[in-house]
Write a structure and sequence with these properties.
The chain is an all-alpha fold. The chain has four helices and no strands. 79% of the residues lie in helices and 0% in strands. α3 packs antiparallel against α4. The longest helix is centred in the middle third of the chain and has 33 residues. It starts with a helix and ends in a 9-residue tail after the last helix.
């Protein structure tokens, strides 16, 4: 819940630090695009691999990779330890 609440103040914080609206939009948009792409492709890979191997641990590993990608995106956007769920 902290992440969702803190996520809404990233734009105003970046503005206070001197970023323009265009820069904020590009940074936030790229972060969201990367996270969504990683979730999409890791999910497809997990489904395809699960059909081939039908293995719980394979799906778990691939899904964890997608979640790790989201965590990396948060770090790149400047999120701290308090932002993690």
């Amino acid at each position: 819940m902290t992440y969702e609440g803190a996520h809404s103040v990233i734009g105003p914080l970046m503005k206070d630090l001197g970023a323009s609206a265009t820069q904020i939009g590009i940074i936030a948009g790229l972060g969201e695009m990367i996270a969504a792409s990683l979730r999409y492709f890791s999910g497809r890979l997990a489904d395809k691999t699960a059909r081939l191997l039908d293995d719980y641990y394979t799906r778990l590993l691939l899904e964890s990779g997608g979640r790790a990608g989201s965590g990396i995106r948060r770090k790149l956007e400047g999120g701290g330890a308090a932002d993690r769920r």
